[in-house]
């Protein structure tokens, strides 16, 4: 058996002796790109049952079936971390979905602000990028990707026990680690605004909310995708699974 096997996210079952039918794209990738034949092996996971080594039982050009033979890793959890972001250009949104997955986000929520200028968000594309990142990086869970919502609607239905960390370029420049460390541990979320920054009325609305914690990311203005990675890193270091 090869030391490094390809990994696939499958749904819904992957546990022992379960037969797993792959979708057409997965079957094409294994059969026509990797040239896998019956009795070849692949690693599979579904976000709930850990990672399993599966054997190819049938292989055709457009279909393929596997059987899960033994577990290679038990299911791992991760931080209860929601990632909210104002959509930007498509290629960079793809990047943000991938990096949020790698950083352990449990939920991705596109959030429409007044200065959002990106084209229509395709939830299926975001989900596909999250899956691809999880497959490539050895992660055992894939974040839930929710439909886009306007910022005002997000705030009006917010769970008040979940702290919302907002990257705010107008916040006082101070150590974000100190600001975060002063907060009690609780479920948390990160919000990255649009490239032009939040509209003044939106910023005022955010700062009125008891659950909002604005932080500075330093003296330099970052692109939205850079700010996302920076903010997720800080939150993981203080509240997440990097402690």
From TrEMBL:
Organism: Methyloceanibacter methanicus
Catalytic activity: uridine(1498) in 16S rRNA + S-adenosyl-L-methionine = N(3)-methyluridine(1498) in 16S rRNA + S-adenosyl-L-homocysteine + H(+)
Domain Ribosomal RNA small subunit methyltransferase E methyltransferase: 80-235
Protein name: Ribosomal RNA small subunit methyltransferase E
Residues in Ribosomal RNA small subunit methyltransferase E PUA-like domain copies: 22-67
CC terms in the record's Gene Ontology section: cytoplasm
Function as written in the Swiss-Prot or TrEMBL entry: Specifically methylates the N3 position of the uracil ring of uridine 1498 (m3U1498) in 16S rRNA. Acts on the fully assembled 30S ribosomal subunit.
InterPro entries: Alpha/beta_knot_MTases, PUA-like_sf, RsmE, RsmE_MTase_dom, RsmE_PUA-like, tRNA_m1G_MTases_N
Family: Belongs to the RNA methyltransferase RsmE family.
NCBIfam families: PRK11713.3-5 (NF008696), RsmE family RNA methyltransferase (TIGR00046)
Main location: cytoplasm
Statement: the UniProt record of this protein carries the keyword Methyltransferase: yes
